[in-house]
């Protein structure tokens, strides 16, 4: 399987960096939502 898709999910490739960025954005969005809900309760 290695080498079949040289531009797909190689460690350190732009694709992996993009996936990491998307995951980080989702974590931050979840955190912001929790903060907004906490503020709404007060």
The helix/strand class is mainly alpha
Taken as a percent bin, the fraction of beta residues is under 5%
Could you give the order of the helices and strands? Answer: H
Oligomer: single chain
The major pleated sheet works out as: none
Low-confidence stretches: none
Work out the helix count: 1
Q: Quick gist of this model?
A:
The protein is mostly helical.
Description:
This protein is mainly alpha-helical and 42 residues long. The relative contact order is 0.09. The mean pLDDT is 81. The radius of gyration is 17 Å and the shape is rod-shaped. The chain starts with 13 loop residues before the first helix and ends with a helix. Helices cover 67% and strands 0% of the residues. It has one helix and no strands. It has a domain of 25 residues.
Structural features:
0% strand
Helix and strand layout, with pairings?
Layout lengths: L13 H28 L1
């Amino acid at each position: 399987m290695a080498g079949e898709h040289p531009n797909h999910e190689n460690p350190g490739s732009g694709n992996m960096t993009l996936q990491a960025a998307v995951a980080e954005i989702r974590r931050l969005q979840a955190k912001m939502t929790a903060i907004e809900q906490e503020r709404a309760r007060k």
